[in-house]
Each structure stands twice: as C-alpha cells, then as structure tokens.
Amino acid sequence: MGSLGFWRLARNDPDWIACVDPDGTEYRAEDLLARCNRVVHGLRDLGLQPGDGICGLVPNGVDGLILYLAALQAGWYYTPINWHLTGPEIGYIVADSEAKAFFVHERYAAEGARGADEAGLGPRRRFAFGEVPGFRGFDELVAGQPDTLPENRTNGATMHYTSGTTGRPKGVRRRLAGIDPDDSAELLTFLLSFFGFTPGPPNAHLVTSPNYHTAVTQFGGSALNMGHTLVYMDRWDAEEALRLIERYRVTNTHMVPTHFKRLISLPEDVRKRYDVSSMRWAIHAAAPCPVPLKQAMLDWWGDCIWEYYAATEGGGTIASPQDWREHPGTVGKAWPISELLIVDDDGNEVPRGTPGTIYMKMAGVSFEYKGDPEKTKANQLEDYFTVGDIGYLTEDGFLFLSDRKADMIISGGANIYPAEIENEILIHPKVADVAVFGIPDDEWGEQIKAVVEPAEGVPPGPELAEEILASLDGRLARMKWPKSFDFIEQMPREPNGKLLKRKLRDPYWKDRESAI
C-alpha cells in the first residue's frame, strides 16, 4: 500500500486538478483537501464519532465530493440522497440512516427542509449550500476550522439506499475495517483494475449520471483515488458529453444503454464534429444493451466499450470489448473475486444454458440491509445473494441476462422476457425509447403491452405501431409480439437510465386482486 488514495495524492501533487464542476470551475487537489479537512473538524466539534452517518441532498459537483471525502477519512457513513424524492421519502432516509448531519443544496430547499422536519433533525445539524430557510450555512460549519489533516483518521464508507421494487428503500451497510483511509481508498480501486485502468494524470473521468447512484459514486470515487480528474455533468446531454470528452481529453466514463441510444441518435455531422479518440474505458451497465446499439458504439468509438453486471450489495461480471465481440449480448464472466450461481424457484442449481435466478457472492465482502435482517436473509442463499434478475450461463461461464423476475410476463403459461422485446423495438429508427410489460388478460393471464416514445418529429399512432410490428417479422417469435401499443411523450426514467416501469404498469392492474 502507499501510492494511491486521494489524500496521499493531494499532498504529493497539490496542483493536480482533481475536479471540474458543471459550470467549468476547476478545483485543485490542495483546495479539496483543505475543504474536506475543515468539514471533518467542524462535524467532530458537533460530536460526530466513527460509525455515525451524514446525508447529502446535493447536485453533481464539488459539494457532494467534499462530503464524500470527509466521511471517508473520518470513519463515517455518507448517504447521497436521490434529489427526485419527496420530503417524506427524504425524511425516511435521513431518519433510517441515523444521520447526525444533513446537507442540502438550495436547489432542493423545499423538499430538503420537509425531509429534515420529517426526520426530526435539530437546527444545529442542518447545513445548506446556498440559502435554505432554517438551515445553517455550510460556511458556518467550516469557519475558523483548521485545514490540517485530522488526527485519528479511519476509513468510512458510502451507504447507498437501494430503490427496491417493493417496500421502502434499504441502506446497504458494510462493516468498517478501521484502517487508514488512503489504504482503504486504494483497496477500492481494485474494481477499476479489472478494466485495466492506469493511475495518475492525464486521465479524466466523465460523471454522466447523478452521484446518488452506487456505481456512479464507486467509479468516480475510485477514479479520483487513482489520480484521475473528475469532470461533472449537471444533467445528461449527448452533445455536451462529446464536447466535454474532447475538451478535457476524457479517458474513462460510466454510462447506461440509454446514453448510447441518445449519442447514436445525434445527427452524423454532430457526431463527427468532436474528437473522442482519448476515450479508453467507456464502461456501461444498469440495463440490457441491444446488440446492434452496442455494435454501433464499438464501430464509432472503437474497442473501448466495456460492460459489467453488478449490484450495490457486491459481486459481478465483466465483459471486455473482445469478450463481447466473441459473445455478442453477454454481460461477461465473474470477477476474479466473485462467484455466480443460477438456480430454479426451489433454490436448486440449473444446468448451463438454462435461465434461472442469478445469485452472486464476492470474496471477503458481506453486507446487511440496515435494520432489516429479514430482507437480508430473504435475498440470500447460503452466502450468495440475489437482486431478482434472471439469466443463464454458457458452458464457458459467460452470463447472459434475460430480465428481472419482477418484469417477467407469463402468458398462456409461457415465460416471456420484456427486455428481449424492448431490445428489438429500440433499434427501430423511429423509436426513441420503449417499455414492454404484461397487462391483465382473462384468457391468457397476461398479454404484452408496448409503450413507445417516438423519435423526434415522428407522429405516434397505429401506422407507427404497424411499422414496428413489421420490423419484428423474422426477428422475434410472434408469441412475443406486443398485442397493443401506447405512445408517450417522455419515458419515466431515472437519470441513471433505470426505467420506472411500475409507473406505466400499475394503472392496468389497479382493479385486480393481485398483480402477477
């Protein structure tokens, strides 16, 4: 141990540009180090101890990064909160995480204040970036505090809340190792080593999605701990992403297939306007990626498109560009420190090539859903866990995803995977986005419904539906064709690309005794 970790790197190279805010403001490592040190001193004066938690309701950028770095060197749990949540939902997380301090950006003042009230958090523990009524200014916390490295430093961790398909979100909490923060940070960079990342400038990492997502925090934080500059986007915009890649010679990023679709949909002259040759690791995950879409990205950006499959809870797979070219559609093989198990509904391992529920485990890593031992146990099979995805393994160990268990359609006794249908529809040039799910059918149990967001300038209606169906001929068995289409102006997706399918599906099931 001894060459990586933000605090070590910042002391060795104080002038390194550690991050660039969405407005273009650049921050030197020395400045970030001083600010995160002051936060630690200020919160310790408030009585925070190792093992305590802090929450942040902040946009992408330097403010959240300072909270993250402070927590990770003071032995605290840092929980970044989804800024699309309502006051009561925010309050639940603040209370459930037992946060001893809550930081809110003025952009989210109204719901942040409601959340603090809901959690019963006292005024001394509320801090604002900007103006938030009833909150103390962030400057008040750090005023007069030294910028020196705190004593008795010990590693902290992030505690992200899983969005979950049922019930309230749960915090994924890991036991703290009680080791030097830089050594802990260096250990966290193991994930990037699977992709072949190299440390130090002039590498730069483009943050394309909200930092409240586990993968965004992990990849961005790990890149920073390897000495890469973090370049933040405030919100996703395809052409802006290309501009930033060229401007900062970005070498790595983390994306989702929706980002790829938006990039590929740009006019060819716009795509050719920007130099993306600096990109070496464009990593994607979070949703199945249609084979032609990924192929188009590889043709454009070259062999820098890497894929993985993982979960907040730990464990996963990785597919290099070469792996994927040899096994189109795969999400890769298990990480060297991870194992996969595919089982049937009775928990028995299924033969290779047979779809089943995917269970994973990661060597030496355990977790609990905070305050919910029953949920922790329900999602486990011995020391493996599942998030409810369905897939199969090939004879040589490559994993292919079928769908989420919760999204599977059972029509006439046959299992139908919406992701497969969505992938085929999404590559239609007149389709910007699509969601497929089951709706009630008295004869078949469920029938297939497709909700389509037409591409810009394309009129919705029966003609478009017929054109989409015709394009499926010979590519998809007719039993998998949608029975009906709805059209929507904008698909309800989280900014990380995750489709909020329940919002579309629930109205069809509201009068039924039970949703399948």
Nutshell version of this structure?
The chain is α/β, with parallel strands linked by helices and 516 residues long. Among the domains are: 30-162, Rossmann fold, CATH 3.40.50.980; 334-405, Luciferase, domain 3 (Roll); 408-509, GMP Synthetase, Chain A, domain 3, CATH 3.30.300.30.
Question: What does this protein look like?
Answer:
With 516 residues, the chain is an alpha/beta fold. Among the domains are: 30-162, Rossmann fold, CATH 3.40.50.980; 334-405, Luciferase, domain 3; 408-509, 2-Layer Sandwich (GMP Synthetase, Chain A, domain 3). It is 32% helix and 24% strand. Helix 1 (6-12) crosses helix 2 (29-45), helix 4 packs across helix 5 (109-119) and helix 11 (257-264) crosses helix 13. It is globular and about 70 Å long.
